[in-house]
Amino acid sequence: MADVTIYTTRFCPYCIRAKHILNSKRAQVKEIPVDGDRDMRRQLLERTGQSTVPQIWIGEQHVGGCDELMALDRQGRLDSMLAS
Length: 84
Description:
Elements: E1 4-8, H1 13-24, E2 29-33, H2 38-48, E3 55-58, E4 61-64, H3 66-74, H4 78-83
Parallel strand pairs: 1-2
Antiparallel strand pairs: 1-3, 3-4
Helix pairs in contact: 1-3
């Protein structure tokens, strides 16, 4: 199963939803909280060009945020990405 990395904040409803989807798929998720952590926010911005959360990687592929994750699931592509 592919490694999943997700940058989150504690009270972000999109982060909670994305984690729920990934947990329902039994994905092994490495969560990186960026609440109040300027260095982690800077790392997120450098890595993605974005400062919004969640930001999700499956393996080395940057998926984007919760909307993109849900779109992959609706298209039937998420399971195969997680399996690789």
